[in-house]
Specification:
alpha+beta, 2 domains
């Protein structure tokens, strides 16, 4: 993947992940200096799938079958449909995408009944950052992986990484940002594993000083960029790939 392509992909991932990334209920107490109220409570339940650029959306217009078909979601998050034109669907669940398309068709059709479902999936990427050899965006393998495997995709943690507090962040179903830690040292010594299978657009962060370092990451890259703009996202991409 070229440098510009990687930066563009990172821009899209960050923009989608950070939409409405606001605080909700606090988690249990953590080390001094860490602010748990920034995060939504972690849940392992899978949120409804949201379509993203590169996915294919199967659209069925029951009241006008000739308009039905499968449509690719472009890099701008829009799907181009006959009569409806370009409709923004990125980040939407299938029912939400169907409603957006029906609202557009309502301009030309009477009481359109629309159904939508994901029919194909684009690249499944995660962002690996912090104290790793090669931070950046990485494609998820076909099998499920955890934080340790994600760090290996990025060349492995550096000797400065705090392996007992590897951070995993994920967008919550309510739009907030969830966070949990993974103790790789305990797992490597044969202890119980507290890893979690990674999902699309998860962030795996290897801190140097400990969990309190997440504050800086959130302040710079999430909390102060609502809404995020492309200029900032590309600036972050430059920072990620400059080392």
């Amino acid at each position: 993947m070229s440098e510009m392509s990687r930066r563009g992909a990172l821009t899209g991932a960050l923009a989608l992940l950070t939409l409405s990334a606001c605080a909700s209920r606090p988690r249990a107490a953590d080390p001094a200096g860490f602010e748990p109220a920034r995060f939504s409570p972690w849940t392992d339940s899978a949120p409804p799938y949201r379509v993203y650029p590169g996915d294919t959306l199967a659209v069925t217009v029951h009241t006008a079958p000739e308009l039905s078909g499968e449509y690719l979601i472009g890099p701008d998050g829009r799907a181009s449909l006959p009569l409806a034109g370009a409709v923004m669907v990125a980040g939407a669940t299938a029912p939400e995408a169907a409603r957006a398309i029906a609202e557009r068709y309502a301009r030309t059709l009477r009481d359109p009944i629309v159904e939508a479902r994901p029919a194909g999936f684009g690249s499944q990427r995660i962002l690996v950052g912090g104290e790793v050899e090669s931070p950046g965006l990485y494609d998820l393998p076909t099998h499920r992986i955890g934080a340790m495997e994600a760090l290996l995709l990025a060349g492995g943690p550096t000797i400065r990484a705090r392996r007992s507090e590897i951070v995993v962040m994920r967008r919550a179903d309510d739009g907030g940002l969830m966070m949990r830690t993974v103790n790789l040292v305990r797992a490597e010594r044969g202890g119980p594993s507290d890893s979690v299978p990674l999902a699309r657009f998860d962030i795996v962060f290897a801190p140097r000083r400990g969990i309190a370092e997440v504050n800086d990451f959130i302040e710079l890259y999430v909390r102060n960029i609502l809404p995020i703009d492309n200029a900032f996202a590309f600036a972050m991409a430059n920072a990620v790939f400059s080392d």
